[in-house]
Amino acid sequence: MRPPVAELHLHLEGTLEPAFIIETASKHGIELPWRSLEHLEAQYDFTDLQSFLDLLYVNLEVLRDEDDFAEVTRRYLVRAAAAGVRHAEIFFDVQAHTRRGIPAETVVRGIRSALDRSVADHGMTTKLIMSFWRDLPAEDAMGALTHVLGAGLPIDGIGLDSAEVGYPPSLFVEVYRMARDAGLHVVAHAGEEGPAEYVWEALDLLHVERVDHGIRSLEDPELVERLVRERVPLTVCPLSNVRLRTVETMAEHPLPRMLELGLLVSLNSDDPAYFGGYLDANFDAVVAEFGLDARAVEQLARNSIDSAFLEPDERARLH
Ligand code: ES4
Ligand code: ZN
């Protein structure tokens, strides 16, 4: 992929490759439910979002110390740089770790130690976005945010992920207010498996600056009109949508329609170790399926830069 591109929807826990999971479990003497690498690799046939989350949440338990978080981040940066990524905004699921007794300090310091080297090592700028599990009570998210802010841990924004249906954005109004008041950027997953109504809520109640996925917005023409008018970025993840059966096949993916409608869509890998590839594979898949020409590829890349939390001079460097 030639034009400079930003990756804006990437879960760090979704970058643990099977070999790394097995290695790190063995380093810490952790017993996983998988007898072997092959046994683990046989688990990647998902039927929906929840079936994937069940596997993700078991595997991420190998992350224990600061160096594990630094190492997984380093590996992502190397792979993303090879895919042409020049700016990355990375999610981590704070409660996935704190609920197992791993302090947020360990997580953030580990990740940051790798991010701090990414400009020097890869010419890649980065942001770090702390995501909350929406299927846990909002009070839990509030507690985590209060702690991280109080401890002065360096994060750039907050997000909302995990099981969507039944957990609308409206549950998290106070959490998002606190984050905005603290000067953090705010994004949320909405309209992946959940309805267009959740996208409205994310915009009107959480005041998000970007919507993660948002593909079900297309079911509501009034919503599409607003997203276009306000240039709300949507971070779309084609391989993820196919592997989680959010769309039946790549041929049915709404990306071409989203581009035609003038939505500010970017391509992203979501959980690349689980869904069949990094950002380059996502570009390759949509180019192969839809025969996108160089102009469309450039548009997608440019959209990603325009959708990023960059200062004007940083944006200009990438345009
Ligand atoms: C996730 Cl909702 C969702 N999608 C993809 N990856 C995730 N990790 C945590 N929640
Ligand atoms: Zn996601």
Automatic annotation (TrEMBL):
One of its GO terms (cellular component) is cytosol. GO terms for molecular function: adenine deaminase activity; zinc ion binding. Its EC number is 3.5.4.2. The active site is at E192 (proton donor). Binds 1 zinc ion per subunit. InterPro entries: A/AMP_deam_AS, A_deaminase_dom, ADE, Ado/ade_deaminase, Metal_Hydrolase. CDD domains: ADA. Pfam families: A_deaminase. Substrate binds at D271. Gene3D superfamilies: Metal-dependent hydrolases. PROSITE patterns: A_DEAMINASE. GO terms for biological process: adenine catabolic process; hypoxanthine salvage; nucleotide metabolic process; purine ribonucleoside monophosphate biosynthetic process. The record marks H213 as: Important for catalytic activity. It is an enzyme of class 3 (hydrolase). Zn(2+) binds at H9, H11, H189, D270. Residues 4-319 form the Adenosine deaminase domain. Belongs to the metallo-dependent hydrolases superfamily. Adenosine and AMP deaminases family. Adenine deaminase type 2 subfamily. PANTHER family: ADENINE DEAMINASE. This is Adenine deaminase. It comes from Agromyces kandeliae. The lineage of its organism: Bacteria, Bacillati, Actinomycetota, Actinomycetes, Micrococcales.
